[in-house]
């Protein structure tokens, strides 16, 4: 009888340690070295529009997505492009890009989302560091 009770106590102790460990790990403050800014409500709406209109089918962010259109990770900070460039193509379309009828607020939201993406990193990120154990440390803006 004592052996079963001892196993039960060990099980309760392990579950307790596991619960506390996960609470500290996942519910504590963010300890990442990333200084990525949090998204504004407008940028979140832009991300929703990005997803609703399936922009990833043609465009890439951080090199992930379709290959019909260009990668838009850093389109905002590109000296030859920027937010006016994006605004022009959102409603006028070009070649294989459809002509969308976005309102001014929707255009601003998508641009805000792309500004957020632009602020979070570079693509391609040539300043990454690779460690022997397989971890990659990337350079943030």
Protein described:
There is one protein chain. With 141 residues, the chain is mostly helical. The protein folds into two domains: 2-28; 41-120, Orthogonal Bundle (Cytochrome Bc1 Complex, Chain D, domain 2), CATH 1.10.760.10. Helices cover 46% and strands 6% of the residues. The protein has four helices and four strands; from the N terminus they run ααββααββ. The chain has helices spanning 2-27, 41-52, 83-92, 104-120; strands at residues 60-61, 64-65, 129-130, 136-137. It has a two-stranded antiparallel ribbon. A two-stranded antiparallel ribbon has the order 3-4. A hairpin with a 5-residue loop joins β3 (129-130) and β4. α3 (83-92) packs across α4 (104-120). The protein is elongated and about 75 Å long. 13% of the residues are buried. The mean pLDDT is 85.
Helix and strand arrangement:
Elements: H1 2-27, H2 41-52, E1 60-61, E2 64-65, H3 83-92, H4 104-120, E3 129-130, E4 136-137
Antiparallel strand pairs: 1-2, 3-4
Helix pairs in contact: 2-4, 3-4
Write out key terms for the chains shown.
141 residues; mainly alpha; Cytochrome Bc1 Complex, Chain D, domain 2; two-stranded antiparallel ribbon
Short description:
The protein has helices at 2-27, 41-52, 83-92, 104-120, and strands at 60-61, 64-65, 129-130, 136-137.
Strand line-up of the largest beta sheet: 1-2
**Number of separate structural domains:** 2
In terms of quaternary structure, the protein is single chain
Number of helices: 4
Q: Count of DSSP E strands?
A: 4
Give the uncertain stretches in residue-range form. Answer: none
Alpha-carbon Rg, integer: 23 Å
Q: Note the overall shape.
A: elongated
Spatial separation of the terminal alpha carbons: 62 Å
Per DSSP, what share of the residues sits in E-state strands of 2 or more residues?
A: 5-15%
CATH superfamily placement of the largest domain: Cytochrome c-like domain
* Helix and strand pattern: HHEEHHEE
Secondary structural class: mainly alpha
Classify the fold: give the CATH topology of the largest domain. Cytochrome Bc1 Complex, Chain D, domain 2
CATH architecture grouping of the largest domain: Orthogonal Bundle
Output mean pLDDT: 85
The first-level CATH class of the largest domain is given as: Mainly Alpha
Helix amount: 40-55%
Q: Please outline the major beta sheet.
A: 2 strands, antiparallel
């Amino acid at each position: 009888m004592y052996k079963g009770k001892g196993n039960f106590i060990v099980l309760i102790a392990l579950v307790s340690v596991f619960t506390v460990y996960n609470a500290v790990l996942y519910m504590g403050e963010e300890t990442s070295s990333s200084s990525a800014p949090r998204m504004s409500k407008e940028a979140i709406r832009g991300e929703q529009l990005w997803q609703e209109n399936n922009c990833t089918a043609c465009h890439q962010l951080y090199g992930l997505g379709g290959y019909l259109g260009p990668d838009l990770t850093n389109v905002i900070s590109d000296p030859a492009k920027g937010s006016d460039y994006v605004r022009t193509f959102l409603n006028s379309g070009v070649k294989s890009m459809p002509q969308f009828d976005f309102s001014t607020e929707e255009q601003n939201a998508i641009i805000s989302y792309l500004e957020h993406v632009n602020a979070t990193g570079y693509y391609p990120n040539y300043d990454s560091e690779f460690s022997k154990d397989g971890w990659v440390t990337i350079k943030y803006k």
